[in-house]
Amino acid sequence: MDLKLAASLWQQMQQGLRGDADALPLPAFVDRATFSSAFAVSELAATSIGLATQATAALIAASRPDYCSPPVAVNVRLASRWFQQSFYPLNRAAPAMWDAFAGDYRSRDGWIRLHTNAAHHRLAMEQVLGAHADRAALAMQVQQWQASELEQAIIDAGGCAAEMRSAAAWQQHPQGQAVQREPLFSWQTTQPAPLPDWPMAEARPLMGIKVLDLTRIIAGPVATRILASLGARVLRIDPPGWQEPTLDEELSCGKRRAVLDLTQTADREQFIRLLREADVLVHGYRADALERLGFDAETLQALSPGLVLAGLNAWGWQGPWRNRRGFDSLVQMGCGIAERGMQWQQSDKPVPLPVQALDHATGYLLAAAVLEGLRRRVTDGHGSQVRLSLARTAWLLQQHPLGQCAGADIEPQVKDNLPCYELTPWGLGVRLRAAAWLPGTPQMFATSGSAPGTHPATW
Questions:
Q1: Quick one: average pLDDT of 236-246?
Q2: Measured between alpha carbons, how far is 39 from 390 in angstroms, rounded to an integer?
Q3: Containing H/E element for 111?
Q4: 101 - beta bridge partners?
Q5: pTM above 0.85?
Q6: Which of 66, 127, 205, 278 is most buried (CB neighbours < 10 A)?
Q7: What is the average pLDDT score of the chain?
Q8: d(C-alpha 356, C-alpha 83), whole Å
Q9: So what's the pLDDT on residue 285?
Q10: Are strands 210-214 and 308-313 parallel, antiparallel or unpaired?
Q11: Per-residue pLDDT tens over the stretch 214-226
Q12: What are the beta bridge partners of residue 187?
């Protein structure tokens, strides 16, 4: 592990979180095995997990004058493994993480990544490229296109794709320039509200705090998973028909899951009732999506004074791509990470990060932001709005390259797992131990993962 890079990451993270690069002490780092990568991926994992943990300690300290914040330690190897996955099924195959047609394809003038995991995104791709029997046939069709033209055609059809760009090209792109101007955490203070009466027990500091979760896929659910592990009552709301089978066991542990259609009057009214009692709303909608549903920031604060409103998107909150659909793998292609990996490994094809580090790191940073927003509510008596993006996290990581080949594969070890099985609706599995240790405040899940619609849309 490169401690200088970790310290630099830490300073930038807490500068964005607290406005002070020295606000929180750097955690102790143990078992410092790291991924092999062109960038400081394991350092990013350890520091982002550490930031959420230190933000937990700061929240407890703000609520309880008698609390003396103990030192935080982060296991770097375990943090790296949490960036891979934390739940491992036993005696059954793990769900496939990628659709058969998702991946990188050579175009006429470069490379492009197609993201087809969601059925409607695959249909959008097929609207442009046609349906094909296998990847080889699709690859032949992609080779007839220029990457930028195919990227735009698929986006226009409602799909998801990203041309491979160099870091230099991205920094000259209007969206790349917009992202570089954005802060890592974009904060806005909202209206005052009565001081809360949360119990803030050291063992379960978020007990009694209600979190509405409107997130999908990885980054947002990572954030709300941490909040659930600290005792928050997390209610995730999915739209009708939404399916996320590859991630249900991994990311929905500790949460309740309901289904509401916010375009229907009865469901909107129920959502408003939930909002009136919520302390936190976490969403992964694009920049104007909540506004178009009638839930702009002012409306949300009026419904729930003092609300901590935390949002994330893929490509940033300003610039021409602020409303573009995106995922970790696409951002890596578009902003220069995959092209830099290709050079670093002297490969003839794109080389992404060894894990979906933008998703996971942004999730932990978002959790830290929620915890900081709760701390501000306790100390200052006002609500907060905070925004993050995968592209801005990518820019943070791109400022921390590794100069040479370093690290290795992170090998699983039996000691990494909790000493008990986790029973889910799909079967048995094992989960990793927490990567960070805050004495007196364990991270644990009260329930296993569940499918959408398992629970009613009530607190």
A1: 90
A2: 16
A3: strand 111-115
A4: none
A5: yes
A6: 205
A7: 95
A8: 7
A9: 87
A10: unpaired
A11: 999 899 999 999 9
A12: 386
Query: Is residue 405 scored above 70 in pLDDT?
Result: no
**Residue 130 structure tokens:** 């046609």
Quick one: tokens of 361? 């790191």
Compute the chain's Rg from CA coordinates.
21
374: left (phi over 0), alpha (psi -120 to 50) or beta: alpha
- Look up residue 158 and give its two tokens: 């409602």
Look up tokens 């659909």; give the residue: 325
What's the residue count for the chain? 459
Strands (E), 264-395: 280-283, 308-313, 382-389
Place of tokens 């891979």: 84
Cα 269 from Cα 249, distance rounded (Å): 30
Distance of alpha carbon 459 from alpha carbon 44, whole angstroms: 35
Whose structure tokens read 């940073």? Answer: 365
Among the listed residues 46, 53, 37, 56, the one whose alpha carbon sits nearest the alpha carbon of residue 7: 46
Amino acid in position 304: S
Q: What is the distance in angstroms between the CA of the first residue and the CA of the last residue of the chain? A: 43
Tell me, letter by letter, the H, E, C secondary structure of 284-310.
CCCCCHHHHCCCCHHHHHHHCCCCEEE
pLDDT at 406: 58
382 residue type, one letter: H
- State which amino acid sits at residue 357: A
Tokens 């003839």 -> residue: 348
**Phi-psi category of residue 296: left, alpha or beta, with phi > 0 → left and psi -120 to 50 → alpha:** beta
CB neighbourhood size of 317 (10 A): 20
User: Do residues 445 and 231 lie in contact, with contact meaning Cβ atoms separated by under 8 Å?
Assistant: no
Q: What is the distance between the alpha carbons of residues 447 and 379, in angstroms, rounded to a whole number? A: 31
Our CA angle for 86, 92, 98, nearest 5°, is 65
Among residues 304, 328, 299, the alpha carbon closest in space to that of 220 is found at 328
Q: How far is CA 372 from CA 18, 280, 441, 458, in A?
A: 8, 12, 17, 26
Buried b (16+ CB within 10 A) or exposed e, 37-56: bbbbbbbbbbbbbbbbbbbb
